[in-house]
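Mods, move this if it's the wrong board.
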Amino acid sequence: MSYFFDSYAIIEILLGNQAFEKYGAETLTTTEVCLAETYYALLRIGRPDARSVLSNLRADIIEPSRNDWFAAVEYRLSRKTERISLVDALGYTISRKNGLKFLTGDEKFKDIPGVEYLKK
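Not the wrong board. Structure tokens:
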């Protein structure tokens, strides 16, 4: 099974969380906006090497189309009471479109089809 890695999953892999160890050998598929969110999170926890780490990260980047963004907005709106971020909605809808499992630790996706939920 191939995965779409949200920022939470990327961060946990980079921090060496053993719960995510089995995903380390997978091709890391994500979007630039997830990487930007990851960069922000790494800087926030005091990782001065964040830019270097992410610049050297081997990843397959999916470039969202305008229709991908529209689908993400529609999905986010369909779950508006849960306050899903636009970045997460985009990742989820792109993962579904591309036949990938959405790998996340976000509880809002815990029991959603096509999601592999893993919390540290």
